[in-house]
Amino acid sequence: MPSNVSLSAGSAPHSSLRDSALLAAAGAGLLASQYIASREIGSTFFVTELSVVAATVITLIGPSLSYAIGDRLRGSARWFRLWALLALLFHLALPWGVRAIVAACGPAHSTAAAILTGLGVALLCGYYAVLLPLHANATSLPRLYAAELVGALLTLLLLTAAPSYHIIILGFLLLPVIIFGLVFGRWVALGVWVVSGSVWITASHLDRWVSTSYFQRYHSLGAPKVVESVYSAYQRIDVVEDSGDTALFLDGVPFYRSGDLDAFNVFLAELPGSLLPRRGRALVVGSGSFSSAARLHRLGYSVQVIELDGLVAEVGFRRFQSVHKLTAGQVSVRIDDARRVLATMDERFDLIVLDVPAPYRIQTALLHAPAFYRQVAAHLAPHGVAAISLCDGLTEPLGKRIAASAVQAFGEVMVVESNSVGLAVLYGATALPFSLNEVVKALTARDPQGGQVVPDRLVRSTALDASPLSERDLLGVLLLSRQAVNSQ
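Below the sequence we write its predicted structure tokens.
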């Protein structure tokens, strides 16, 4: 082993500059690996607050173990080289490796996929973390630890300033060239550079191949074709064609597809919109495929859409043109946080549609809390109605909790459960402007499989034993997350 690879901090002359550069690169590699791992885990497995917590824990286990065993590895050059090789391989594979592991294991073995992913991430993060105790002694530790922190700060700058996730991946693939060059010498650096460059050149093809396998094996699509796959600041957006149908996946969760999720927009937007006495202004929170907004536009409403993720709105409008059939300007789109918008705007709407994800994460749980529903209620015009997905059946734990939040904000509610959709939708208002019989007739006309309409009194009694979601209820979100994962 070259002198600069010695595992004993005092056994060979080291350049303090080289050591500082190595620890800065290791700090950058550690934080970058934690960031990429968290994003890939979150966009591949079923996304809940538990998966976010699990990703954080996994990325911390490796460094914790490395700091504990660092001194024992001094002089163990053979094991150190093996660890380095495995870490290098997992580093280069990480941007696609999580989806590849999940695809290979399939939905029946998701636990095995999670374990393999956790071991790989812990091994990688642990290798970059162990470089500090291996190269530091009592006098150099403060300087080298400071260098490691500087490297992490430089990574934070890259994550903040990079114009796209594509550029972040480029920087991520270049890091091993620096790290392994400083540890093992220039010839190893050259070899790593060639491999990293090859991975970068084939990155788009590799991502498409892995994603196709993922949607085929994990989501049971017959012949999926990934037509677009991009990362926004918030999530991964996949547009997938299968047997002539186009589906929208956000962080690996289906948000729109023909069939059940297309019929869902009928009951979320079209049915209440068709029954209102006045078809004036409508607000849709969440753009998705623009199916809800398009249905209201065709009913004669002036539609405004609020979407937090601008890239979702752009991709949804462009890729689902055959679904919504809208042209630019037919609906107004505002890229902003709905909670902030409703807190500052004065406009009132005849219909407000909440087309938002289920409350399995803190950010989305806030869109199902009584405080937000009260904001929604305050922006309803006289005889206005809010339409809210219960994300499950009314009698299920998740449906009950969302209903418990809604009944605190609205004077009268009603729930529609369509058999073809499998999800319940709640309509709320100060006083609903349509009758139970009118909704029953509208449901029968739109759903050949039938369903049921639950009046205010039964909705409130059903939700009586459920606690509403709130911004202070992290435990409740975690419990919902566990229930959702167990049902997968």
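The mean pLDDT is 87.
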